[in-house]
Amino acid sequence: QKEVEQNSGPLSVPEGAIASLNCTYSDRVSQSFFWYRQYSGKSPELIMSIYSNGDKEDGRFTAQLNKASQYVSLLIRDSQPSDSATYLCAASGYSTLTFGKGTMLLVSP
Amino acid sequence: GAGVSQTPSNKVTEKGKYVELRCDPISGHTALYWYRQSLGQGPEFLIYFQGTGAADDSGLPNDRFFAVRPEGSVSTLKIQRTERGDSAVYLCASSVSGGGGTDTQYFGPGTRLTVL
Questions:
Q1: Can you give the C-alpha Rg of chain B in angstroms?
Q2: Is the CB of A39 inside 8 Å of chain B's CB atoms?
Q3: Which end of chain A is least crowded, N or C, by CB within 10 Å?
Q4: What are phi and psi of B85, to 5 degrees?
Q5: Tens digits of per-residue pLDDT, B26-56?
Q6: Which of B40, B98, B100 sits opposite A101 (nearest CB)?
Q7: Is A108 buried (19+), middle (13-18) or exposed (0-12) by CB count in 10 A?
């Protein structure tokens, strides 16, 4: 049974700070990992994908993957109040996604 | 271009009734997925279509749930004899090809189903 674990939060950070979101997964078959952002009452929106060990940067976002430790993280630099949302970590082995419960991020002005 | 659309946006029904939820994927996407999201949880996989056929239906919770995609585009999720525990947001997603695990899945706005 594939599982993806996330701390539900909320994670509270002040505006301008770095937010660090973490995720672990149980299935070594998983090869691709995704971070989705979900605003309250809205559908998930993809913000980052990562497939190889190491870091991947896109603007203020950096995803990190360590397959040996089965660990994925997302760093958000210069956090803004508009970043306040639930961040969902997802793992994919072939085609379907297994999601964690999500971490709620609150960025205070 | 147009994204994934789902209708209705909200559906309220009574226990025991039959409901149909519709998903219209992004044009040209061959892969279509249904997920269910309960309050405070992440989306939970239900079924995956590659073209007209169900490539993986392992997430359907029981035989009251059924989905079709007869022409390889629009899909309908059908729930018979609804139960209060079926109340959730039903999300549909589509992707270009589906295979390989690296395809980006684009989600629709969801249908909020409430079973009274």
A1: 13
A2: no
A3: N
A4: -70, -10
A5: 999 999 999 999 999 999 999 999 999 999 9
A6: B40
A7: exposed
